[in-house]
Amino acid sequence: xxxxxxxxxxxxxxxxxxxxxxxxxxxxxxxxxxxxxxxxxxxxxxxxxxxxxxxxxxxxxxxxxxxxxxxxxxxxxxxxxxxxxxxxxxxxxxxxxxxxxxxxxxxxxxxxxxxxxxxxxxxxxxxxxxxxxxxxxxxxxxxxxxxxxxxxxxxxxxxxxxxxxxxxxxxxxxxxxxxxxxxxxxxxxxxxxxxxxxxxxxxxxxxxxxxxxxxxxxxxxxxxxxxxxxxxxxxxxxxxxxxxxxxxxxxxxxxxxxxxxxxxxxxxxxxxxxxxxxxxxxxxxxxxxxxxxx
Length: 294
Known about the structure:
Elements: E1 7-24, E2 30-49, E3 54-58, H1 72-83, E4 91-96, H2 107-122, H3 129-139, H4 143-148, E5 152-156, E6 160-163, E7 171-176, H5 183-188, H6 207-214, H7 222-228, H8 231-241, E8 246-249, E9 256-260, H9 263-276, E10 281-286
């Protein structure tokens, strides 16, 4: 009889606090310079040894999850199995999909990263972080940073990572007005791709120094995304009306974030936004600090 070994992995939302597009490679990949943090809210995976492979999705956004080979979780399973032939038995994978799909907060990439972490443990592969990151990069440019899942600056196409030490927790509200955005379309619409990189981070990061620094930065994708999806502007306006210390779109959109000094203030703001926009995705959470595990 098969011995079942259930395992759970968290797939946190990825938030680009600032995102500068600094160039484009000959192969079409864009170069970025981005300050990235991860939230205490996200998707969840369960992985269990089984008689045969299976994959199922539950949660608020389960209906939008492809259950075939197009899903990054299954691509991660297959890539890891190919890297360790003979060591990877059948598994039942469950995905609790709490994050909107195609929403600029790395849901699919974070799910893939969680699958790589969890399957490597389930199969006792003994792969180190660098080996998993190499496999992750074959799945998507955001997967290595989602494997790290800690405050960092991402450069290149997203694969060159520098951890940000002593990054504290902040209150965070994520808002999506219910529209999906194509990352490829937004990048294609950029009028300029050779923008300046991020300025140096503050020597000491607290809420006020971070907010001041963010005011000097950009998300170079926001203008194009707002033109394509005007509801993004409504989400930003809702965050500012709820007294966010700073508000901006994450990634290629349409999810926007608001920073707050504490988690309790973020919860009150989220409740106010949810009351005005009951059909939107609204989540009150916090950023993970340096050194926290996903």
